[in-house]
Automatic annotation (TrEMBL), chain A:
PROSITE patterns: ABC_TM1 (PS50928). The chain crosses the membrane at residues 24-46, 91-113, 120-143, 149-168, 202-227, 247-270. One of its GO terms (cellular component) is plasma membrane. InterPro entries: BP-dependent_transpt_permease, MetI-like, MetI-like_sf, OppC_N. It comes from uncultured Truepera sp. Residues 85-274 form the ABC transmembrane type-1 domain. GO terms for biological process: transmembrane transport. Pfam families: BPD_transp_1 (PF00528), OppC_N (PF12911). This is Dipeptide transport system permease protein DppC. Its main location: membrane.
Length: 285, 315
């Protein structure tokens, strides 16, 4: 591992200079903030209920009282996109937090300690890497049902093993280094050494992986909800809106276009932000 | 080499054992497990009879051992909803999934490597930027949505391709008909995997292109074509093979949803049907089969490594 050379802390001036060299990343980050602002403040700006039906205007074309038309029950598409975005974007963010936390704890512990702890934890990671993640999601959702909390934890579980591997590699490269020994002899506890002295070195990589992870989580939630095992109606999510829309492809194909565009844009801005962050934060990339 | 393959085989079996134990205990110990599924709307006596029929009166560890000894003999239990042997159901669907997955894999490999090489050769020029942008876009578009959009375009609007199934109903077998059904799902699946392959192929090519022996080859006046094909490409293949191994995991995850979009009767749809119907033996079986495929492919990749790169030996 070349990471044996600790990364010098990125100084503030240099950080901003690097940021300025990534206009695409900055723009993506701006869109990302805008998306979150829209779904948070959206209901204030557009006070239409996502569950109110308008039986006289079923599958209506865009325009008039419904700017993007209505679905098969006469529900307003714009409102459903905003409320669905709330669900999809928060599931994405929270799932990433679950995966990040698990990955940091397991990877960090396995990397810091040798021997049996390392063996057991890393075999567990191997197992999770060997199961195609979507099958794992199916098993868990079958058993525990489709409560939004379950979905968040499940999607996070599909992501943590990768995070754990990266954190593990980083932590284990600090084993036996002089400053760790010195800390130890000064009486610092394992936890303090791990959190205060090694963890900060992992932050750049973890931030990049986590940003890309949110995009992945949004895609997974959408896929789960699309096949009917994720967020359950009447609650809207971008994924389950697509499930309903597929039945009306011949009548109103636009129903299937909007939610997919929302997902694609959300994931794209997370990926672009993540890529830019990799260039800015990761000294080795 | 033989020793290495044997050791990896043992490791693979260990991982599969852990996967099966993990899923089995997860399924059986959870509050919504099989005992709950067979208890719905039954009297106490009926419940007891069903418990005995499915062996649910025994401890979980005993049931796991029984299930495992069945698996070794090729008996994966009986589907709760269809009453048929799970192994038969899996076998029926496996062929369809493999057909879809292999076609997609071949498409991804050919297209991905070509695009990656083109991007590397034209580094920082227009084709490179174009290919990289499309790759980033491809990573962000949900595969199943791409499937729906292509159905709208090619089936609904243009009427060129059928929107679902493996073959037209009520027609005798025809290769053309099969291919027409296969083309859309396989392309969509391939497109979702493409970005990873393009990226790896590009960076592998770039790394080799900047190496000393390529410079030497150019310096001694070899034509560009010979340098690219004989000196660079072959050596850039090693990481590409690695990513193709990793991709199989993603491939099977992706096929679950894509099969659902195109009503493709494969393992993925079977898994979804089983998940919806809480058909535990089937869920366990599908997971085991998917895990086995991943383990076997990774083993093959390691062996291929050694074949492609003579510096790697496992002894």
């Amino acid at each position: 591992m070349t990471s044996a050379v600790a990364a010098p802390p990125v100084r503030r001036g240099r950080f901003w200079r690097k940021v300025r060299r990534h206009p695409v990343g900055v723009a993506a980050f701006a869109v990302l903030c805008l998306l979150y602002l829209t779904v948070i403040a959206g209901p204030l700006l557009y006070p239409v209920s996502p569950e109110a039906t308008d039986p006289l205007n079923i599958l209506a074309a865009p325009g008039g009282a419904h700017p993007l038309g209505t679905d098969e029950l006469g529900r307003d598409i714009t409102a459903r996109l905003i409320y669905g975005g709330r669900i999809s974007l928060s599931v994405g963010l929270l799932s990433m937090l679950v995966g990040l936390t698990l990955g940091l704890v397991v990877g960090g512990t396995a990397g810091y300690f040798r021997g049996r702890v390392e063996g057991v934890l890393m075999r567990l990671v191997d197992v999770f890497m060997a199961i195609p993640s979507f099958f794992l999601l199916l098993v868990i959702v079958t058993v525990f049902g489709s409560h939004p909390l379950t979905i968040i934890v499940t999607v996070g579980l599909g992501f943590w093993a990768q995070m754990a591997r990266v954190v593990y590699a980083e932590f284990s490269s600090y084993r036996g280094r002089d400053f760790i020994e010195a800390m130890h002899s000064l009486g610092a506890s394992h936890l303090r050494i791990m959190v205060r002295h090694i963890l900060p070195q992992v932050v750049p990589q973890a931030v990049v992986l986590a940003t890309l992870g949110v995009g992945w989580a949004i895609l997974s939630e959408a896929a789960l909800s699309y096949i009917g095992l994720g967020i359950q109606p009447p609650l809207a999510s971008w994924g389950n809106m697509l499930q309903n829309a597929q039945a009306y492809l011949y009548v109103n194909p636009m129903l299937a276009i909007y939610p997919g565009l929302c997902i694609a844009v959300a994931v794209l801005v997370f990926n672009l932000t993540g890529n830019a962050l990799r260039d800015i934060l990761d000294p080795r990339a | 080499m033989g020793v290495f393959v044997f050791r990896r085989l043992l490791q693979g079996i260990l991982v599969l054992l852990l996967v099966s134990a993990f899923t089995f205990f997860l399924v059986n110990l959870a509050p919504g497990g099989p005992s709950a599924a067979v208890s719905l709307e039954r009297t106490a006596a009926e419940r007891e009879a069903l418990y005995r029929q499915y062996g649910l009166d025994k401890p979980v560890a005993v049931r796991y051992m029984q299930w495992l000894s069945g698996v070794v003999r090729g008996d994966l239990g009986t589907s709760l909803t269809q009453g048929l042997p799970v192994s038969g159901l899996l076998w029926q669907r496996l062929g369809n999934t493999l057909q879809l997955a292999l076609t997609a894999l071949v498409l991804t490999a050919l297209l991905g490597v070509t695009l990656g090489v083109v991007a590397a050769v034209t580094q920082n020029r227009l084709p490179d930027h174009l290919i990289s942008s499309v790759a980033t876009l491809g990573m962000s578009v949900p595969g199943f949505w791409l499937g729906i959009v292509s159905i709208i375009l090619f089936s609904v609007k243009l009427g060129w391709l059928p929107s679902s199934g493996v073959a037209s109903v009520g027609q005798s077998f025809s290769l053309l008909d099969r291919a027409q059904h296969l083309v859309m799902p396989a392309s969509v699946l391939a497109f979702t995997l493409l970005p990873n392959v393009v990226r790896v192929a590009r960076s592998a090519m770039l790394e080799v292109l900047s190496s000393d022996y390529v410079r030497t080859a150019k310096a001694k006046g070899l034509p560009n074509r010979a340098v690219l094909l004989k000196h660079t490409f072959k050596n850039a293949l090693v990481p590409v093979i690695a990513i193709l191994g990793l991709i199989t995991t993603v491939l099977f995850s992706g096929s679950v949803v894509i099969e659902s979009v195109f009503s493709w009767p494969g393992l993925g749809r079977l898994a979804i049907e089983a998940a919806n119907g809480r058909d535990y033996p089937v869920i366990l079986g599908v997971t085991l089969v998917a895990g086995t495929i991943v383990v076997v492919v990774n083993l093959l990749v390691d062996v291929l490594y050694a074949a492609v790169d003579p510096r790697i030996s496992y002894d």
